[in-house]
């Protein structure tokens, strides 16, 4: 592996907000991103005119960096509209950290918004259909993830109840989060009785379709304490891509998180055993199992057993997706920014009933496409510097 340098702890997230989780009728994706942005800035006494680094990737606007700049009247020196699906926002944090460290900007805004629920009412894939999948009419994106789950089942004996453990843990966290979209109780009996969508997935294995927006603000570490009582420092970040279409994935049960995770943790100087809170992109229940393995929290093939017995649920030994995740809290087309926001909430001790006591280190992991683009951040409190 090539030697990498990352500005460990030299940049920090000083504001993180969500807006419009669930349903936000009458608002466009750009409206939602702009509202979240102004709220995040206002919370720390800044305005859009203070922003000179804009990082945004709206699903329905490939020029969204220009659109948000115009909408809010900003004058950025750096604009980044990089889109790698749901992992885009982890890459934005990495790029923002590098830009801040290099002095290319002083205040970086990272934002996202989507009206996917009220705008279309269904999960929409922005991926071009490959001719290999088109011939078999593979449903996108659920079909690709179902293939991965089926492969895992064949190799490691995955049980339906183990996928259910992921869905139930997410729901239990959501019940502690007043902003979560789906908070009704979910038992294993309820899970097993749910309607099948794409074998082995039922509707309870699939992410929500919601509206929602989020925004975070980043500055250099020396300024962070002037803006936030508990800034959250960016300790490490890395991204990796192996394929786009699921038919070109080298092995359906191993994702590029097995590369991005170790690289990000090496930047931060930590191991998985040091992590207090894990926020994963759980578009489908199999994601949580695969990412826990690939990020090093358990060995390959052990993830299904790892999630049993409430281990990742409230009160478990490894809190995972503490806001309820994409399965029960929010999933407005792309979820990656919300993993970062929830990690910030936990490390800032602002998570209310779902707060993980003593949380000092968090991993926020994003996934794009069909297990295609993987990006991992390690975030920490001042004590971890």
Keyword list:
385 residues; alpha/beta; Peroxisomal Thiolase, Chain A, domain 1; two-stranded antiparallel ribbon
Task: Give the helix/strand class.
Answer: alpha/beta
CATH class: Alpha Beta
Low-confidence stretches: none
- What Rg is obtained from the alpha carbons, in whole angstroms? 19 Å
Q: Can you offer a commentary on this structure?
A:
The chain has a single domain (11-121, 208-384), classed as Peroxisomal Thiolase, Chain A, domain 1. The mean pLDDT is 95. It has a nine-stranded mixed β-sheet, with helices on both faces. The protein has a two-stranded antiparallel ribbon with strand order 5-6. The radius of gyration is 19 Å and the shape is globular. It starts with 10 loop residues before the first strand and ends in a 5-residue tail after the last strand. Helix 1 crosses helix 2 (64-72) and helix 7 (160-174) packs across helix 11. The protein has helices at residues 29-42, 64-72, 88-102, 116-119, 131-134, 142-156, 160-174, 188-192, 221-227, 257-268, 285-294, 303-306, 325-328, 336-347; strands at residues 11-22, 53-56, 78-80, 108-114, 196-198, 201-202, 211-220, 232-241, 277-279, 361-368, 373-380. It has 14 helices and eleven strands. A hairpin with a 4-residue loop joins strand 10 and strand 11 (373-380). It is α/β, with parallel strands linked by helices and 385 residues long.
């Amino acid at each position: 592996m090539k030697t990498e340098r990352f500005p460990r702890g030299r940049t920090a997230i000083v504001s993180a907000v969500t807006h419009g989780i669930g349903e936000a009728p009458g608002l466009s994706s750009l409206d939602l991103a702009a509202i979240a942005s102004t709220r995040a800035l206002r919370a720390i006494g800044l305005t859009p005119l203070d922003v000179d680094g804009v990082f945004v990737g709206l699903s329905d606007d490939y020029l969204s960096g220009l659109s948000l700049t115009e909408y809010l009247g900003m004058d950025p020196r750096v604009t980044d509209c990089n889109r790698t699906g749901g992992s885009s926002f982890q890459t934005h944090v990495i790029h923002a950290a590098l830009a801040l460290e290099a002095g290319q900007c002083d205040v970086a805004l990272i934002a996202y918004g989507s009206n996917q629920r009220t705008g279309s009412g269904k999960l929409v894939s922005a991926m071009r259909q490959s001719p290999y999948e088109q011939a078999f009419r593979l449903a996108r994106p659920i079909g690709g993830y179902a293939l991965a789950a089926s492969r895992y089942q064949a190799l490691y004996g995955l049980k339906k109840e183990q996928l259910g453990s992921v869905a139930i843990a997410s729901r239990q966290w959501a019940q502690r989060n007043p902003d979560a979209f789906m908070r009704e109780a979910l038992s294993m009996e309820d899970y097993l009785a749910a309607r099948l969508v794409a074998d082995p997935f039922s509707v309870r294995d699939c992410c929500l379709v919601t509206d929602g927006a989020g925004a975070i603000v980043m500055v250099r570490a020396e300024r962070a304490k002037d803006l936030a009582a508990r800034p959250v420092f960016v300790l490490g970040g890395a991204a990796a891509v192996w394929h786009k279409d699921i038919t070109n994935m080298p092995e359906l049960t191993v994702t590029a998180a097995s590369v991005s995770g170790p690289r990000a943790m090496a930047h931060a100087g930590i191991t998985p055993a040091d992590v207090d809170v894990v926020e994963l992109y759980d578009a489908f229940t199999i994601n949580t199992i695969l990412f826990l393995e690939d990020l090093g929290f358990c060995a390959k093939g052990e993830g299904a057993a790892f999630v049993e017995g409430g281990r990742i649920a409230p009160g478990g030994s490894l809190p995972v997706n503490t806001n309820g995740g994409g399965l029960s809290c929010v999933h407005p087309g792309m979820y990656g920014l919300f993993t970062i926001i929830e990690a910030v909430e936990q490390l800032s001790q602002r998570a209310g009933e779902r707060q993980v006591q003593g949380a000092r280190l968090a991993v926020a992991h994003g996934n794009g496409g069909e297990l295609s683009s993987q990006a991992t951040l390690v975030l920490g409190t001042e004590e971890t510097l």
